[in-house]
Each structure stands twice: as C-alpha cells, then as structure tokens.
Specification:
alpha/beta, DNA polymerase, domain 1, TIM Barrel, 2 domains, seven-stranded parallel β-sheet, 43% helix
C-alpha cells in the first residue's frame, strides 16, 4: 500500500504556486475553494467520495480539483502540482539571492479584513512556510472605501484579533501590527494619531490625486514624510506598468483593476532628502505590476542616504514570495543589505519605528 498524501495541503500548495506565478484569479480561487470545501470532511468521507466519484457534488469542487484529490489519496503527487513545480520561477543572480536570504520579514501585506483574499491566519502560516520571522499586517485605512479600509473601531478589533492569532502561531514567528495609511490631499495621514502610535509599523501611500501637479504632490509627500508616525513611504510613484494581477480575491478586488498608469510627478530629490532626514524608509514594492520605484529612483534614494523596505504588498499567500522581484531590482541598483530595514529582527524593527526622530 502507498501512503496517501494530504490532498488539502496539495490543493493549497497549488493555489500558492498559482498566486506566486501571477496566474488568473479564477484558477487560484478554484483550488482555495476546493480546499475549504473539503476541510470540513472526515478522512473517511473524503476517501469514500473520491472512490465513488462524488467529490464534484460538493460546492466548490470541480473536475480538476477532484482529480488532484484522487491522485493525492493514491499517494501520487498531483499532475497539476508536478507541472507547476517543474515550470516555476527563475533563478536569481548571486547578489539578489544573498539579499533575499537576508530578509527576515515583510512590512507590507493585506488580509481579507480589507482587500486581501485570505484570512490573517493563512497569510501568517504562508509566511512561516517561507521562513519569515515576522509579517507586518498593513490593511488599508478608512478613506480607501473601495478596499474596505479599516475604521478606527475595526482597526482596534483587528489588533485584538492579531493578539489572539499570535498566541497560537509557532514559536519564533509573530505578526506585527500595522496599517497602509492613505496620505491625504493635504499630506495628513488617514487614521487617528493615538491608533497610529499603537502600531508596530506604519506604511503611508498615495492612492488618490495621483495626477496632482508637481508642486502640490511634492508638498503632500513632504508633509507625510515629516509625520513622526510614518515609518515607510509606500509605492512612491503610484505607477502601474501592467494590468491588474491575479490572486487578489477579496471584496475589494475591483480596486485592483488599474491598467497601466504613469508615475506621479514630484520632486524626487526633495522627497528622498526628507526621507533621509526623518529616517523614513523608502519602499521597494515587489508587485510585478508596480515595480515601484523605478530603478532610476531607487538609485537616487540610495544616493540620498535613504533606508529601504523590500515589501511584497501581498494580497494573497502566494504573493508573499514576490520579494525576490524586489530583491532583484534592489541588487541591480546596488542597495546593500544593511540599508534594508526588513533584514532586521522584529525586535530591532519595532525599536526603530518607536524611537525614530
């Protein structure tokens, strides 16, 4: 007898690899939905249904996912999974590989509390599997209604929930509290000051008025960077170099349908000088459709003396492995590991965010 594999784990692994490969959302959803549908079955019922070909009678299970389950139960790696593994990714060069190995966490991620596609617990466990030591949860702030941004009350509830999840996670890993707060038109931050002060990490990003004229956008960004609560300046130009990604399956999915979008116009030298002065990190956003900032601006921020955060802006578990894209671009621009804040431990990171000038 050949020992059965874990079919639910195989379905989730397939979904993870599809997300990482930026495949279509409906493909990802098919495997995650099937895993969720089967998770409530006993092992005996799962085996019985696979044997009498009734798995597809369950909502969320189709022919392809049922075939994967049958192969898993027979002790075989599903053909679908085997093909994904055989064709995944590309190798990084030595510099990018070393930088990726130095990263200990991710400072910009989303859950289904805002516009992400998965619960906090799933995001955290995926980060554990990738070898992270921490994950900063940065769901959106209230003004971004299309992404179900968190009101002050919802954010307080999330903080309580994160504390409960942390208590159940493997030793040596923790979720750090955070937010991706909107930088409003006047440069203020879209959340209560007392709450921002409670969070471990605050990422601030411009999501509206991206076509503002140069002097207005510069003033807006400079005011935000000078705010003592802001730790990381997120996707600084707001550009989109390709259409919306796959794998974003949350309620705010429509908020990610942007096609290509030009960079915002601002005085980059002034903004990066302010980041260096206030010790605010510049994000290197790893999302394939963003690639923000462009490499010329990464080099200028490096010359200005800025710190960096290489983040995924992940909205689904498989996207947490997109850090390699950011590392590749950072390495090409000569960014050393000692200028990247998420090469630090969680303790070092939180000490920095709470004691910055």
């Amino acid at each position: 007898m050949v020992d059965a594999r874990d079919p639910i784990a195989d379905l989730r692994r397939i979904a993870f690899l599809l997300e990482r490969a930026n495949e279509a959302t409906y493909r990802v959803r098919a495997f995650r939905s099937a895993a969720k549908a089967l998770a409530g079955l006993s092992a005996a019922e799962l085996t019985e249904r696979a044997g009498n070909s009734t798995l597809t009678e369950l909502a969320g299970v189709g022919d392809v996912t049922a075939r994967c389950v049958a192969e898993s139960l027979a002790g075989e790696e599903p053909v679908y999974l085997r093909r994904l593994v055989a064709t995944e990714g590309s190798d990084l060069d030595a510099e990018a590989t070393a930088l990726r190995a130095a990263l200990r966490g991710d400072c910009h991620t989303h859950s289904d509390w805002s516009d992400g596609g998965s619960p906090i617990e799933e995001m955290a466990l995926a980060a554990v599997e990738l070898g992270h030591e921490y994950l900063v949860l940065t769901d959106h702030s209230p003004r971004l209604t299309v992404a179900r941004g968190l009101t002050a009350e919802r954010l307080r509830r999330q903080l309580d929930h994160v504390a409960q999840v942390n208590a159940a996670l493997p030793e040596g890993f923790r979720i750090l509290t955070g937010i991706e707060v909107d930088i409003l038109a006047d440069g203020s931050l879209d959340q209560d000051d007392d709450l921002l002060g409670r969070l471990d990490v605050v990422v601030g990003s411009v999501h509206s008025g991206l076509k503002d004229e140069r002097s207005k956008m510069t003033r807006r960004m400079l005011k935000a960077v000078a705010n003592p609560h802001l730790d990381i300046l997120g996707h600084v130009t707001g550009r989109m170099v390709s259409s919306r990604p796959a794998g974003v399956t949350g309620p705010g999915d429509r908020g990610h349908r942007a096609r290509t979008r030009a960079e915002s116009d601002f005085d980059a030298d002034a903004v990066f000088a302010a980041c260096a002065e206030h010790d605010t990190a510049v994000e290197i956003n790893s999302r394939p459709e963003r690639q923000d900032p462009p490499k010329r601006l990464i080099r200028r921020a490096l010359e200005a003396g800025c710190r960096f955060a290489i983040n995924t802006d992940a909205h689904a578990p498989g996207q947490l492995d997109w850090q390699r894209f950011g590392c590749e671009r950072a390495a090409l621009c000569g960014v050393p590991a000692d200028r990247v804040i998420n090469t630090w431990s969680a303790e070092q990171l939180v000490a920095w965010t709470h004691h910055r000038p």
